[in-house]
Q: What sequence folds into this?
């Protein structure tokens, strides 16, 4: 279905034996239900709005300066691409392979949406939400693939990236000036990086959990490998527990380490060398509730507290050395 000179507004477009395609080279596309036995495709010069889309064995592709999808199910990929406007998902987007919601200068608005890759493709089944000029907000993002179909959950934004809940069979990665993860579980790594600030309320990673930014904060986290909270000009904050199989490092360059109510624990489980706990500020104070290393043999590790000004520690237990240094301790 094609409108050569204007817009298309239709309640339903269905292709029982192939692709359902709607185009408006000189206008917009508005479709209530877009369904193809292979692909479901809508393109326009101004905007595309689809309430529900289904591509039984193929892809859902919506392309325009601004795109909006209510709910979509595809055997292959779900690809929403906007240029000057935003890319919006209000309900669910469930794909057999990849889910990609991208915007060039606009925002990705999926704060109430659930984005899911079932990992049914031949390679990694990933979820990507990206804006090179605006913010990215996603409610829930999940990858379910196994083997070669394991995939990442990735959010990348020019301003703010926020993910409510993430679950990945590989990595969860957030990158933006301000990056926020409320809850995340990853088979491999959780990596949250923000030039201005980075925060994780709750995270569990099979390998490493890393939060880094000018200011960095963690509510509670578990990692099979390392757990690192790294701040440059601001504070490195932990409010709950930080438990890692290998190293726990809470560090700040000019800001403080604020972990007075936190428990920092290096279990040494699976560590190939010393599993240590380090809380250090090169320019300010350090406050830690408790610091514990539990590794034995080669995994025995130090507890080290180091501050440029004042240091405070509630309790410590180390299977190797304990070091405590500050101007005022």
A:
């Amino acid at each position: 279905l094609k409108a050569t000179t204007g817009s298309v507004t239709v309640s339903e477009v269905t292709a029982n034996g192939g692709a359902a395609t709607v185009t408006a080279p000189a206008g917009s596309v508005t479709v209530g239900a877009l369904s193809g036995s292979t692909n479901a495709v809508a393109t326009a010069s101004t905007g595309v709005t689809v309430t529900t889309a289904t591509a039984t064995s193929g892809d859902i592709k919506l392309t325009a300066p601004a795109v909006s999808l209510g709910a979509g199910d595809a055997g292959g990929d779900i690809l929403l691409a906007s240029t000057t406007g935003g890319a919006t998902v209000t309900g669910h987007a469930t794909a057999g392979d990849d889910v990609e919601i991208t915007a060039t200068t606009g925002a990705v608005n999926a704060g109430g949406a659930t984005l899911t890759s079932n990992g049914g493709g031949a390679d990694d089944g990933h979820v990507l939400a990206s804006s090179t000029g605006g913010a990215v907000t996603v409610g829930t993002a999940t990858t379910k693939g196994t083997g070669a179909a394991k995939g990442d959950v990735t959010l990348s934004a020019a301003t703010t990236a926020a993910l409510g809940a993430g679950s990945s069979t590989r990595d969860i990665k957030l990158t933006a000036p301000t990056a926020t993860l409320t809850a995340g579980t990853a088979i491999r790594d959780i990596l949250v990086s923000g030039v201005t600030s980075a925060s994780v309320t709750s995270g569990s990673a099979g390998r490493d959990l890393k939060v880094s930014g000018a200011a960095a904060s963690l509510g509670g986290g578990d990692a099979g490998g390392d757990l690192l909270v790294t701040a440059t000009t601001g504070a490195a904050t932990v409010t709950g527990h930080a438990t890692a199989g290998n190293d726990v490092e809470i560090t700040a360059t000019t800001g403080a380490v604020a972990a007075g109510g936190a428990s920092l624990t290096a279990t040494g489980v699976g560590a190939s060398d010393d599993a240590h706990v380090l809380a250090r500020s090169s320019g300010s104070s350090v406050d830690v509730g408790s610091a514990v290393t539990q590794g034995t043999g080669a995994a025995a590790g130090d507890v080290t507290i180091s501050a440029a000004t004042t240091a405070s520690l509630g309790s410590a237990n180390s299977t190797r050395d304990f070091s405590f240094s500050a101007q005022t301790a």
